[in-house]
Input
Amino acid sequence: MSLKLGLVGIGKIARDQHIPSIAADPRFSLVACASRNARVDGVANFADVETMLAEMPDLDAISICTPPQAHFEAALAALRAGKHVMLEKPPAATTRHISLLQDEAARHGRTLFQTWHSRFAAGVALARDWARQSTLTGGTIRWKEDVYQWHPGQQWLWDAGGLGVFDPGINALSMLTEVLPVEAFVHKAVLEFPENQQAPIAARLDLRTEAGLAIDAEFDFRQTGDQTWDIELFSSTGRLRLANGGGLLEIDGKQLVAAGPLEGEYPGLYARFAELCAAGKSEVDWRPFQLVADAFLIGERRIVAAHKV
Output
């Protein structure tokens, strides 16, 4: 018997990834959607999550893919209504929100799956195995894309809580924290803010481990031409490259995995959500969000030219 699912937030990522992945998984039936300005054919549509929950009490779960500023209230309402909850990344507007939602899920005996879709990229599992068998000596992250191509007209990205360049950049940090066998922290950071916006358009992070391993990370929304979503790790005996957002894996120049951007990631998320719901467990790991929050806390702030959405 499939779980009756409600989808909250009907934007590009919902239509491109969530809806097809739900339709392909027999463990879920999409029966309702909540959005202020969009509808999905063939299901019940509501203007907000509160109305959806009130009028469809037989929902088993909801998946939230609104901008992060709206995640907390929607997830809290769903958990208190006894529903399992899946959260699109970034998880919320503040780190405290995630902790409170985790407590709320436990209080009601519901699943909270706080997701990182990039951890389901094709090359990540093998990269994790390699890193755990290697003596790491350093690494780099280069996450650079054209914001006008991937986020056209999305002002929420630039508002307070929208994270700016860290909205895609947190994908790299989610893979790094999954792959590294040790914990990393922000040692130094420089964040570049457009003079007319509240979120950074570019950032440089000096990440370190307790043992002094350094990961140099660069994020930029001003990339033109080829887009760059690469992580490289260096060891005493070799080199690993995760490219194409984690879909391409090379070790010592030999290609081991080749998949397109996002290929298989959202089906993987929903498969994991179904497993967690069946087991009555939650999965919450907000270390990537902590790294971003810490970059805001200790980073040097630089003002750059205005950005037009």
Summary: The chain has two domains: 3-114, 119-260+293-304. The chain is about 30% helix and 30% strand. The longest strand covers residues 184-194.
